[in-house]
Amino acid sequence: MNPKKYSLTIQGHATSLTLEPIFWAALNEAAAAAGKSLAALVAEIDEARTTNLSSAVRVWLFERAHGSGASQGGMDE
Predict the structure, then answer these.
(1) What is 4-72's CATH topology?
(2) The pTM is what?
């Protein structure tokens, strides 16, 4: 499964994420489940990150799937 580059605009600036399609799908599902736009969710992850954005998204999704970290209190869902 090769990563793909996905473009979006967060907080008024264009950015891109390089993610495997399975992570992109999970990110879209998480945004829908939280009742947020994809850009709004990525903006929240962006604000809290300490590494590059693509890695931060993967870690956030992992923690969300395992009931720890970001989804348990670091960021509102």
Answers:
(1) Ribbon-helix-helix fold (1.10.3990)
(2) 0.83
Beta partners for residue 6, in sequence order: 17
pLDDT in tens, 7-29: 999 989 999 999 999 999 999 99
Q: Give the whole-angstrom CA distance, residue 11 versus residue 20.
A: 23
3-state secondary structure the chain: CCCEEEEEEECCEEEEEEECHHHHHHHHHHHHHHCCCHHHHHHHHHHHCCCCHHHHHHHHHHHHHCCCHHHHCCCCC
Q: Tokens for 73?
A: 């209190």
Query: Phi and psi at residue 2, in whole multiples of 5°?
Result: -85, 140
From CA 26, how far away is CA 12, in angstroms rounded?
A: 23
Q: What is the rounded distance in angstroms from the CA atom of residue 10 to the CA atom of residue 39?
A: 5
